[in-house]
Design brief:
Two copies of one chain form a homodimer. The first copy, chain A, is built from six helices and two strands. By secondary structure, chain A is mainly α. Chain A has two domains: 87 residues, Winged helix-like DNA-binding domain superfamily/Winged helix DNA-binding domain (Arc Repressor Mutant, subunit A, Orthogonal Bundle); 67 residues. Chain A has a two-stranded antiparallel ribbon. In chain A, helix 2 crosses helix 4, helix 3 crosses helix 4 and helix 5 runs antiparallel to helix 6. Chain A starts with a helix and ends with a helix. Chains A and B meet through helix 1, helix 5 and helix 6 of A and helix 1, helix 5 and helix 6 of B. Chain A binds a DNA duplex through helix 4. Chains A, B: Belongs to the GbsR family. Chains A, B: InterPro entries: HTH-GbsR_regulator (IPR052362), MJ1563 (IPR026282), WH-like_DNA-bd_sf (IPR036388), WH_DNA-bd_sf (IPR036390). Chains A, B: Keywords: DNA-binding, Transcription, Transcription regulation.
Chain lengths: 160, 160
DNA sequence: AAGATTGTACAGAATAAACTGTACAAAAAA
DNA sequence: TTTTTTGTACAGTTTATTCTGTACAATCTT
């Protein structure tokens, strides 16, 4: 009874910690998995995770892959162990922040490219006759939106 | 045919702009509504929005309410007009950033409170006999997580 | 006052996301 | 080689989210 308290409290911590992690655009399961891994400290196999979180192995495979791609988790090699072992990276703040900021920068640039494309379309049409005031207005607005994206980009770049 | 091009290009801009806005945790519809409103410049009624986006009036009511709560949109009064008129706020960057940053700060603090609560639980149990090394370990980990939240908090506070 | 109009609550329908179980390819063990 | 084990692809199911239509209270018009 008393010894269960350790597990109970640990679970509560996992739950709360996971809520925070979700804010970095991780799914609930990914977040919980990371939180659990973080408190476990040692490297775990897919089966152990599946067991611990009560979710299917497929789910674990997908979730751990996501975490791995985000660089939140590391694949660990251990002599004599055949299964893949994954371990959470430490340095929470730096880890999540750089991942998050990079995500913003990538997305922002992608959007900037798309808008640049539209700017070209727009300037082609503009040279044709008719409706020129409407085109002017639209050009001005697109500039404003572009400016917004530029600010976003440099804002997140300065964070790094 | 040519005159439709204005609408076509405008729609493409709305679509791309909306994608960016979604990154600030708005739903696709909320994002598209804001983008449309932004390009419209003038204030619009629920019916006009419903018409323009091809979505139900209920959806518009809900979405505009969200935008309003986030301070992204303003209720405008116009003489002789009975319906509610909503207009997008300008100053895109400042607008979205402050909303976003405040959201992070609020969430982070909420999480900090929850963790503090857990810290208290934990220290109560610790004084009882048995399993003290496990409690120590857990305490240490909770401290780390708390530290992470403090860093998050001050990080976003410095942005304002 | 009655009649009409406007915004939203609510319940259900449509759509999207998360999750599972089976099946199988790749790699290790026998 | 054959047999076993491990991770993942895929299709389908479950769960959650988004969206719609009806109904109605509040407000305006007559």
């Amino acid at each position: 009874m008393l010894e269960n308290n350790v597990e109970q409290v640990r679970n509560k911590i996992v739950t709360e910690f996971a809520k925070t992690i979700e804010m970095f655009d991780l799914t609930p399961l990914e977040a919980r998995l990371f939180a659990y891994l973080y408190l476990s400290e040692k490297a775990l196999t897919l089966d152990e995770m599946s067991d611990a979180l009560g979710k299917s192995k497929t789910s674990m495979s997908n979730s751990i892959r996501s975490l791995y791609d985000m660089n939140l988790v590391t694949l660990v090699w251990k002599k004599g162990v055949r299964k893949d072992l994954y371990q959470s990276n430490s340095q929470l703040f730096k880890l999540f922040m750089t991942t998050y900021i990079n995500k913003w920068i990538d997305a922002t640039n992608h959007q900037k490219d798309a808008l640049t494309e539209l700017e070209h379309n727009l300037s082609e049409y503009r040279n044709k006759p008719g409706k020129n005031d409407e085109w002017d207005k639209l050009t001005k607005q697109l500039d404003d939106i572009m400016e917004f994206h530029k600010k976003l980009d440099s804002f997140f770049r300065e964070m790094k």
